[in-house]
Design a protein that fits this description.
The complex is a heterodimer of chains A (383) and B (293). With 383 residues, chain A is mainly β. Chain A has a domain at 19-65 and 75-188: Lipocalin (Beta Barrel), CATH 2.40.128.630. Chain A contains 1 helix and 33 strands. Chain A has a 5-stranded antiparallel beta sheet with strand order 5-33-32-31-30, with no helix packed on it. Chain B is mostly helical and 293 residues long. Chain B is built from 13 helices and 2 strands, in the order H-H-H-H-H-H-H-E-E-H-H-H-H-H-H. In chain B, helix 1 (3-22) crosses helix 2, helix 3 packs antiparallel against helix 12 (258-269) and helix 8 (159-175) runs antiparallel to helix 9 (183-206). In chain B, 30% of the residues are buried. Classes of the chains: A mainly beta (383), B mainly alpha (293). The interface between A and B is large, with 41 and 33 residues.
Chain lengths: 383, 293
């Protein structure tokens, strides 16, 4: 009995895995294929260009093209047959003692740099060409969210409750900006017309002056549950999902609630607003389509597992991936399935990347999958 | 979701979250109160187990005699069963309460692991286990700080490891059988007496300190229960910590003095829930012994 108890105890608590969304820039795709690693792939061949931090798991180059494919009628072929990523010798830069632990925030790219925060609490600016560190800044807690850029300033929140503003080129603290929330900041800040909107696990949404960090609303909006999601800005409203099971539409200028919608579980999905319709997934397994102006429910679709990844609209199809590894192609107007759901070998928590008629999904097991939104089929492109 | 999660892990998870929110979000206090409650609930089982172990301990010398005397396994088995019957001992009495408690402890470990998770993924998992009560759902995230510790991280100050190791040692020392006559068994017991505390101390350094707090709390409650309800009559703290006597070479149950037998058997009787009754009995017992001297 004691042995089993100890065995149970030894399992400890699962470490961070990360759910960074893939990002395309120029001819490169940035994605976290391994826990605690950021990989740059060639957008055409999916061969690896560099990996940060470099390590033994660096993908090796192959000359063959993508091989593992799947369709509504069956899963993908063996991932081992997949051609992949390649690469690569470690970048010609000295990266030592870097352990990101996990990458959750979507990498931000601008001016030849990649900005990425890591679970190790460090915010990195990397050279897009080679993955070398240009500058790095420590924060006092894990970085879960991504970064936002406005002018020459890059903003990032941390689990030390602070929202940091750095000069994008040098990494120096930007001007007099200073802001500390009452709880951890797990979301990506959103900058819109000189205002930084940021949510916090203290159940609040803050609107801050982008230059000083001073509050712009009379009082921050306070929900009944923590807010780890990144708000969506559209028109004069700000849309945010919370862990009190609600999605709130706030007046961008005042922070007052325009409307709210109650789901059956936490909403940890970043809302997508397109043509006046808001699409959001819930941990109650449902996808909701709401009128962005009034919050009226247009339709809902019951998935097979909780939904954390943001829905994506490609080729007129709303592609939704759930945590159970199912991918659905829905009619954005009615919520009807356009094609039978696909089954991946692993769940999806990361937001997808839309590439014309295709959607790129980063699964929890490190597979990178390309879903054809029209045909309802997928191809495993890495590793 | 499997039945084990539905019946044990999920209710425990929700209870812990309710406790944490009730006590100002202090998860450390929630763990301690939860541990007390669980020890309280399983107390009758613990008592049965200790009683059965003590009874087995009493007949141990006679069992060893049978082992030596009868080479034929069938005869040996018959004699052993006869002895059990004579002494009114049920060998399953030691194991059964332990088996019943086993899933409870495993579920408790899993619950603590689940609720203490500090990664975003663990929150997604937690969302599927929390009941649809606003009081529970809105309590997340819970405060991980307790005293000097971050309950989601291993304690690096060694204080918790020392507390866990020391309390494990004391509990082991209190429950270790006293009248072991077999040298090999005595040696094994002595090894375990040191190995277990060291192992638990080491585990405390490697797992989130929330588990360490649970171990320390459950050990301290165990020690208190042991001292007030299950210790042999008249035994003092000093006697508990005295080194175990060297095992006797020869064993003769008949040589056991009446007084020894009385002392060994008394814990079974002394496990009555009313502490006052137990104390009165012990006083009487002491008085009897003084009178004999």
């Amino acid at each position: 009995m004691l042995g089993l108890l100890l065995l149970s105890a030894c399992r400890g608590i699962a470490g961070p895995q990360g759910w960074a969304a893939p990002v395309a820039v120029d001819t490169t795709i940035l994605v976290s294929l391994q826990h605690g690693k950021l990989t740059a792939l060639d957008q055409q061949t999916y061969q690896g260009r560099w990996q940060f931090p470099p390590g033994s798991g660096t993908p090796t180059p192959t000359s063959t093209g993508p091989a593992a494919t799947g369709s509504p009628t069956g899963p993908a072929a063996s991932p081992t047959a997949a051609a992949t990523a390649a690469s690569t010798a470690a970048p010609a830069c000295d990266v030592k003692n870097v352990d990101l632990k996990g990458v959750y925030g979507t990498p931000l790219t601008a001016n030849g740099l990649v900005y990425v925060g890591a679970f190790d609490g460090t915010f990195y600016a990397l050279d897009l060409a080679g993955g070398c560190i240009v500058w790095q800044r420590e924060t006092g807690g894990a970085i879960i969210g991504g970064a936002a850029l406005a002018g020459s300033t890059v903003y990032v929140g941390s689990s030390d409750k602070k929202l940091y503003a750095f000069d994008a080129a040098s990494g120096n603290p930007s001007g007099s900006f200073s802001f500390t929330a009452q709880g951890d900041i797990w979301s990506t800040p959103v900058v819109d017309q000189g205002t930084v909107y940021v949510t916090s696990m203290d159940k609040r949404v803050y609107a801050l002056d982008a230059a000083t960090g001073q509050p712009k609303w009379p009082a921050p909006f306070k929900a009944d549950g923590a807010i780890p999601t990144t708000p969506a800005v559209s028109g004069d409203k700000l849309y945010v999902g919370t862990l009190d099971n609600h999605l709130y539409a706030l007046d961008k200028a005042t922070g007052e609630v325009a409307w709210s919608f109650k789901a059956g579980n936490w909403i940890w999905c970043d809302p997508l607003v397109v043509n006046g319709v808001l699409y959001v997934g819930g941990l109650d397994h449902n996808v909701y389509a709401l009128d962005a102006a009034t919050g009226t429910l247009s339709w809902s679709f019951a998935a097979k597992a909780p939904i954390r990844a943001q829905p994506a609209l490609a080729a007129g199809v709303l592609v939704v991936a759930d945590n159970g590894g199912h991918v659905y192609g829905l009619d954005p107007a009615t919520g009807q399935e356009r094609w039978p759901s696909l089954t991946l070998t692993s769940g999806v928590l990361a937001n997808p990347l839309v590439m014309e008629n295709e959607v790129l999904l980063s699964a929890r097991n490190g597979n990178l999958l390309r879903v054809d939104a029209q045909a309802g089929s997928f191809t495993q492109v890495a590793p | 979701m499997n039945p084990f999660d539905l019946v044990l892990v999920n209710p425990m998870t929700n209870i812990l979250v309710v406790l944490a929110r009730t006590f100002a979000g202090n998860f450390g206090i929630a763990i301690i109160i939860f541990t007390l409650a669980m020890r309280g609930l399983t107390f009758p089982l613990t008592l049965r187990q200790i009683r059965a172990s003590r009874a087995m301990s009493v007949i141990q010398p006679r069992l060893q005699e049978i082992q030596k005397k009868h080479k034929d396994p069938r005869r040996r088995s018959e004699e052993t069963m006869k002895l059990y019957k004579e002494a009114g001992v049920n060998p399953a009495g030691c194991i059964l309460p332990m088996i019943i408690q086993f899933p409870i402890w495993i579920a408790l470990y899993q619950t603590i692991r689940l609720v203490l998770g500090s990664t975003p993924e663990s929150f997604i998992g937690l969302s599927q286990r929390l009941y649809p009560w606003a009081y529970v759902r809105q309590a997340v995230p819970l405060e991980n700080r307790f005293l000097w510790m971050n309950l989601a991280e291993p304690d690096t100050t060694f204080l918790l490891a020392i507390l866990v190791g020391a309390s494990t040692w004391v509990q082991q020392k209190m429950t270790a059988p006293k009248n072991i006559t077999d040298e090999r068994q005595q040696s094994m017991n002595n090894t375990m007496l040191w190995m277990m505390p060291l192992m638990f101390a080491w585990f405390t350094l490697t797992v989130p300190s929330g588990l360490g707090v649970y171990w320390a709390a459950t050990n301290l409650v165990g020690i208190a229960l042991q001292y007030f309800y299950m210790r042999p009559a008249g035994q003092t703290w000093r006697e508990i910590f005295l080194p175990a006597p060297a095992p006797a070479r020869r064993t003769a149950p008949a040589q056991q003095s009446k007084e020894e037998k009385e002392e060994e058997e008394e814990p079974v009787a002394a496990t009555e829930p009313a502490a006052s009754q137990s104390r009165t009995k012990r006083r009487r017992s002491r008085g009897r012994r003084r009178g004999k001297r």
